[in-house]
Amino acid sequence: MDIISIVIFIAVIGLTLGITYWAAKQTTTASEFYTAGGSLTGWQNGMAIAGDYLSAASFLGIAGAISLSGFDGFYYSIGFLTAYLVVLFLIAEPLRNLGKFTMADMIGARFGAKKVRGAAALNTITIVLFYMLAQLVGAGALIKLLLGIDYWIAVLIVGVMMTIYVLFGGMTATSWVQIVKAILLMIGTIIISFLVLLKFDFNFIGMFDAMRTATPHGEAFLHSGLIYKDPIGLISVLIALVLGTAGLPHILMRFFTVKDAKTARSSVIYAVWIIGIFYVLTIFLGFGAAKFVGVDAIVAENAAGNMAAPMLAGVLGGSALESFVAAVAFATILAVVAGLVLSGASAIAHDIYGQIIKKGIITEKQQVRAARYAAIGVAIFSIILALGAEKLNVAFLVSLAFCIAASANVPTILFTIYWKKFNTTGAVASMLTGLIVALVLVALSPSVINPVEGAAFFVGDPIFPYANPAIISVPAGFIAAIIGTLVSSKRHEADEVSYAEVRFKAETGYREPEQ
Amino acid sequence: MQKTANLDYEKIINSSEFKNLVKQKRRFATPYMIIFFIALFTLPILTGYTNILENRAFGWLTWTWVYSLSMFAMVWVFTSIYMKKSKDFDKDIEEILKKNIAK
């Protein structure tokens, strides 16, 4: 590890700790802890959404996938970005209007039953744990490669940092860490892309010509087919990505950090520009790495191609740029896991403890204390899991998290807002069916049972053919919602709020004056 | 939460202004969502079952990439349209709120 790396890493750690120190002074109430008091502006939240969303899987994973498999690597970029149309057109504003701190609050605004909130909290915790495990294991491996320190030390550094941000600075610290990360990530990506374009004499179309002969795949590099042999499997992945974003608890939670639906809307616009430009630039990262680093060198460092972007930075800009990009990757991971800790903690402390166990009768002080304990609990639990999972291939957990979000959360979120007949039984049936079907099918899929030794947990022929089960589990979530609703349409649940009230509030943002 | 100041929600959502707002919103959003989903899922069908996108559009920039990049453009265009259109809805919503709440 050279002196530049050490300086840049310490700068990132120092800056984020400074933010946390500043944020801690303004984090005393539950609303400040969970939502920064709803004080963020549109551009701030837009940047934070980008910082929350663009994980190491995007920055390192997609750059690597494009460099190794050409166009098919870019499919993730397409799915991850276009998902925001669903978020903007169908979810963002009603969510902001109905909810308070969490996704379960929004569903709870219509269905007050404990089992509804419990199921929503269960989904949140499951998604957060899977997503977090993928991030932490990836972070450990990455920092081990970048800095040459042991895996367990790397996981502990990331784990301790994320805990400090959330514990002391709550959503304010988390948001600003995400904003800083989004800026750093964009700067790093734009510099590398510029250098790649420079190498191609700013000839965008000529670059494609050059790529035709730059890799062992030849012309196939420019077409789909190197990763996805079966279009149905690919469609399944796209369903998970494009609907799942609208059900990811740590992304949905970001919409409560702004004051109203209008600001929630404008934050999506800012996010879509930042995220979109980033994903377009992944083309340059991937192509540049394939051409100037070379497929053999990339695979030699990491079989999945995760080191492609930092290696490319090294080739084009020397060790200073490589260190900077490594620090960007580090900041990227920190910002994402902080958001995950916060949303996991909100499900445990606010939904389960505050609303289900304490029935909402809980003082401000108790709420904040519970949130802090829950944050520590979530952090410790995921660190322990990550320490035990070093040798496991957990990259698939990111797309699994999207799949669970799409199958278990999105049908209920949509029907809560838009379907008059939807009821408590339908909501619980949908959330549990979506979750269970997704989990069972993944357990039977090539991500878990694979004929290639070392590719998954078990060696053998998978029972379910597609790595991502969204094509089955998403319809299952919707069908369960409909069947659950229809079979219980005669039953009247006491805790249901009339659809008229929910619809009116969802559209207008009206709230009853608190007594 | 005490609910002493409840509004007659049933009456409001059945009012012509509110019904009109919901209808207008649905009419606006539905085509965009349909176009989006068709455009998105046509891409894997075309790349998976046909070779037509493998033809070159400009130099070695194939239609696969042109299609994909136009998906990005679509997202930016649709979100901008949504932003603009929402301002009209905001006015309607304000009026409904004024009429029913501010007393």
From TrEMBL, chain A:
Subcellular location(s) per record: Cell membrane
One GO biological process term: monoatomic ion transport
Highest rank taxon of the organism: Bacteria
Entry's Gene Ontology molecular function annotations: acetate transmembrane transporter activity; symporter activity
One Pfam family named in its UniProt record: SSF
Membrane topology annotation: Multi-pass membrane protein
Chain ranges passing through the membrane: 6-24, 74-95, 116-143, 149-168, 180-198, 232-256, 268-290, 324-349, 370-389, 395-419, 426-446, 466-487
Entry keyword annotation includes Cell membrane: yes
Keyword presence, Ion transport: yes
UniProt keyword list: Cell membrane, Ion transport, Membrane, Sodium, Symport, Transmembrane, Transmembrane helix, Transport
One cellular component term from this protein's GO annotations in UniProt: plasma membrane
Protein family: Belongs to the sodium:solute symporter (SSF) (TC 2.A.21) family.
Protein's UniProt name: Cation/acetate symporter ActP
TrEMBL record, chain B:
Protein name (Swiss-Prot/TrEMBL): Inner membrane protein YjcH
Transmembrane segments: 32-52, 64-83
The UniProt record lists the keyword Transcription regulation: no
InterPro entries according to UniProt: DUF485
Keyword set, alphabetical order: Membrane, Transmembrane, Transmembrane helix
Domain of life: Bacteria
A Pfam family: DUF485
